[in-house]
Amino acid sequence: MARELSTKEIAMLEPAVLMQRCIALAQQAAGYTAPNPLVGAVIVNHGEIVGEGYHPKAGEPHAEVFALRAAGENARGATVYVNLEPCNHHGRTPPCTEALIQAGVKTVVVGMVDPDPRVSGQGIARLRAAGIEVITGVEEAACLALNAGFCHRVTQGQPWGILKYAMTLDGKIATTTGHSAWVTGPAARRLVHAVRSQSDGVIVGGNTLRRDNPLLTSHGVREHNPTRIVLSRTLDLPPDAQLWDTAIAPTLVFTTEGANGELQRQLGDRGVEILELPVLEITEVMQNLGDRGMNQVLWECGGILAAAAIQAQAVQKIMAFIAPKIIGGELAPTPIGDLNLTAMTQALTLKNLTLRAIDGDWLIEGEL
Predict the structure, then answer these.
(1) How far is residue 304's CA from residue 335's CA, in Å, rounded to a whole number?
(2) Is residue 64 flagged as an active site residue?
(3) Integer angstrom CA distances of residue 85 from 9, 72, 201, 207, 267
């Protein structure tokens, strides 16, 4: 078994390794930082790591500040590694560029430029103007992947959408009777709980709520639970659903004006937020979630809503869990409904594919 490297040995490795360390630090706060990005920082001086830090949640200091505090006077003349361009504007906290300048660092290695218009390129320019060497683009692809949700929201105005589903080898998500517990095994379900814990919201439709009565929490994998989001035009939903327990996690319902006023009153008394729209459109829902600062949402819906979400360009990534089972059934439901495609040449093709085994099941991930 390989021994763990010391901080001095890590510091002597390639910049890519140190940037991966920044990413690992940043990932500790996944699910907590929205509307802010995930950021980690490492400070190296005289061949040794002298400070590390990450941004824990919105409103608290940024990664660079925590790393500078840990480094103290050792930050002077040091090299700082950070996966995202340091900010140069006043938000809830002061600019990180000024903290780096005041600390007297010599070099800043940046994984990627911040796509936020308030920052984009300005942080790098400020550091260079102060005489600090700035190196960019180290492990850029990994840094982009880490903050896919943040980047999508600040450029497109809506969260990064992940569509997750579990199906059998013959493409069924349930039997002809609707029974679906469980398509995949415990390990795959734990991974889904982990993804929920890293998401700001998880979305279902009324059919899924009526059929499965889901809880949609992280089930203790981590403390963070996403906002449970329900899309229902008629609000013809059971009054005793688990999602109405807002002591566990917040619940947000999108519906149409005047739908089921009695249930609305009951849910309002239980702390459920209800937003009525003239017409329940996915594009408007996603815009609303983006305005709320959500970076990433997880679609855990049935095939009809999944198809509508794809057509509305509200899904950017697919997580398809495949169980080595066959159940057949001409009318058994499939993960994605009608996309109005009539030729194989119209098929949506995924990119950046990965395939991995998960304790007897398989997971294919790719981006639309």
Answers:
(1) 8
(2) yes
(3) 26, 21, 26, 43, 43
DSSP state of 16: H
Per-residue pLDDT of the chain (368 residues; tens, 9 = 90+): 445 556 555 555 689 999 999 999 999 999 999 999 999 999 999 889 999 999 999 889 999 999 999 999 999 999 999 999 998 866 666 788 999 999 999 999 999 999 988 788 899 999 999 999 999 999 999 999 999 999 999 999 999 999 999 999 999 998 888 888 789 999 999 999 999 999 999 999 999 999 999 999 999 899 999 999 999 999 999 999 999 999 999 999 999 999 999 999 999 999 999 999 999 999 999 999 999 999 999 999 999 999 999 999 999 999 999 999 999 988 898 999 999 999 999 999 999 999 999 999 999 999 99
Residue of 4, 14, 52, 64 marked active site = 64
